[in-house]
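Handout, page 2. Input:
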Amino acid sequence: METILSTTCWMSWILRGSRRERLLSKFVENECEKIDRLMELYVRYSDRVRAETERWDQLELDDFEMSEEERSGAA
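Output:
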């Protein structure tokens, strides 16, 4: 998602004249459907990131520590 946005921003900055107008017009054609789709993707992926962040925040630090047996190499 970030790559798409970065590329689009870069292209809108670098392109000039009719090429830039053509790129920008793609985002307003068909009642701005491409902008709507980008927003759908943003919401979906930001929800996933938020859920994963919350999951990580709830993990106990003890879950990441090695037991005495693991430290000594015994299984």
